[in-house]
Amino acid sequence: RRRAGPRGTMSSPGITSTLAAKRKTKKKHFVQQNVEVFRASDPVLSVLMWGVNHKINDLGQVPVPVMLLPDDFKASTKIKVNNHLFNKENLPGQFKFKEYCPQVFRNLRERFGIEDQDYQVSLARSPPVKNEDGVCEGLLLASYDRTLVVKEISSEEVVEMHNILSEYHQHIVTCHGHTLLPQFLGMYRVTVESEDADLLVMRNVFSHRLHVHRKYDLKGSLVSREASFKEKVKELPTYKDTDFRNKMQKVYVSEEEKEKILDKLGRDIEFLVRMRIMDYSLLLGIHDVERAEREKEEEEMESTSEDEEEEQDENDPPPLPASNSPEGISGYMNAFKPMGPGEFDPYVDVYAVQSAEGAPRREVYFLGLIDVLTQYDAKKKAAHAAKAVKHGAGSERSTVHPDQYGKRFLEFISRIFA
């Protein structure tokens, strides 16, 4: 039995994916659809949406185990579809969809307070869109409600995820989900035309509704850690450690919040050191409340002078569905009073922290660890061996091991607070 997607607002994001053939895709206005179909310009995204929808429906029929077993951390489920004629306008004729460790990720979603139905709607109601806020190479997309990110990962990273998954799960259990680590929510492989794409779904570090005005990728080192000229001319550049220092940037949070953040960070780094992981960063996003208030006033002034019936801008996120239908991770917030600049729901924006009262600027900070799938043993040893061949064995002295990296990182981050 094949299922179509949930009914709701559909859109064509008009993104050019590294996974798809290079082609121009026309941007369309968001319109209400009555037909239950998936629409995505990229067949990989169509299969991802179909697969997530199908698997969550299937998982709903499987009892939740009393406890996870070692086999659950190795398990996977696969669907292979050949020459089907169903929904052929939106799905390729042949594809494979694989879900890694379904019971483990279901358990993690529950521990992070995300219900499967909301997860399903956030990912499968409309195609993911290109995420301008992230910091990574390759494909990085945000779910249409911007609460989740979908990142393409290498087959080596899939192996490393399997290597750390059991310990990661135990860490999340121990800290009751209070962590700055990425919240891993699902891992899939999509195969279209014999091309594999491994995709990892995580909670978005940044807000689904508060715009980030400045962002930094911090590694705790000042060596070659300055944004390039090409990066700095972008609308929202990703600045680095040297830029942070040169701009005399500070994070103004209360003493209590600072202690909470450093406590979480300390435990997370202990875990990463134990897993021999390094090269991770702290992603810091800053929402300027006063700037957001000015922007809101300007928008309101513009909207009053324009025709109220004007068609919705194609760059706006689709409207949240009506309250009597499943709404995704952020959708239920529509039932409450609208939030203003600087206001957020800590159950949705879990990485957000308000600036302290009396701080020089009213800001909201988003702090989360990213890129935590580089294990020292595999990549670093190969890189260091190559460096030793090229520069001689003396170059090994510059090597930073995971414990040194973690210590240096924690020291640097503890100094970013005012």
TrEMBL record:
Localization, per the record, is:
Cytoplasm; Endoplasmic reticulum
Residue span, PIPK domain? 40-417
Q: Where is the composition biased (Acidic residues)?
A: 296-316
Catalyses which reaction(s) = 1,2-dihexadecanoyl-sn-glycero-3-phospho-(1D-myo-inositol-5-phosphate) + ATP = 1,2-dihexadecanoyl-sn-glycero-3-phospho-(1D-myo-inositol-4,5-bisphosphate) + ADP + H(+); a 1,2-diacyl-sn-glycero-3-phospho-(1D-myo-inositol-5-phosphate) + ATP = a 1,2-diacyl-sn-glycero-3-phospho-(1D-myo-inositol-4,5-bisphosphate) + ADP + H(+); 1,2-dihexadecanoyl-sn-glycero-3-phospho-(1D-myo-inositol-5-phosphate) + GTP = 1,2-dihexadecanoyl-sn-glycero-3-phospho-(1D-myo-inositol-4,5-bisphosphate) + GDP + H(+)
GO cellular component term of the entry, any: plasma membrane
- What GO molecular-function term can you cite, just one? 1-phosphatidylinositol-5-phosphate 4-kinase activity
Q: Which InterPro entries does the entry link to?
A: PInositol-4-P-4/5-kinase_C_sf, PInositol-4-P-4/5-kinase_core, PInositol-4-P-5-kinase_N, PInositol-4/5-P-5/4-kinase
Transferase among keywords? yes
**Predominant location:** cytoplasm
Which Pfam families is this protein grouped with? Answer: PIP5K
- Asked if the record carries the keyword Endoplasmic reticulum, the reply is yes
Protein name listed in UniProt: Phosphatidylinositol 5-phosphate 4-kinase type-2 gamma
Q: Which UniProt keywords apply?
A: ATP-binding, Cytoplasm, Endoplasmic reticulum, Kinase, Lipid metabolism, Nucleotide-binding, Transferase
Organism source for this protein? Tetraodon nigroviridis (Spotted green pufferfish)
Its EC number(s) = 2.7.1.149
Q: Please, one GO biological process term? A: phosphatidylinositol phosphate biosynthetic process
Q: Which SUPFAM superfamilies match?
A: SAICAR synthase-like
Q: Where is this region: Disordered?
A: 293-334
